[in-house]
Amino acid sequence: MPWLIDAFNKLSPTQELAFQSNLCINDQVFHIPMIDFGGKDRELKTFFELESFVELWEMDFLIYSTGRSYHAYGNRLIDHETWIKFMGSLLLINRR
Fold first, then answer.
1. Which is more confidently placed, 54 or 59?
2. Do residues 37 and 78 touch, judged by C-beta distance below 8 A?
3. What's the CATH number for 28-96?
């Protein structure tokens, strides 16, 4: 994604880049599956809870650290109805 690298390179040290999940393509609304895990102290090994989530949604996720939080991004767009189900299923991956 050269456009993304270019956008990052144009940021000053005090700027941040944010994404909105919804995209309008040919008058249809799609969403980027995104997860904010919160907490910079979280260890990467705790992301294994995503394994069943990956299987459920038949989707791979890339995990990034911003320094303040961890974020996961799905590898495909989903329609609005599916996005609502996706967001609901995120509530179920938190383990005690």
1. 59
2. no
3. 3.30.1370
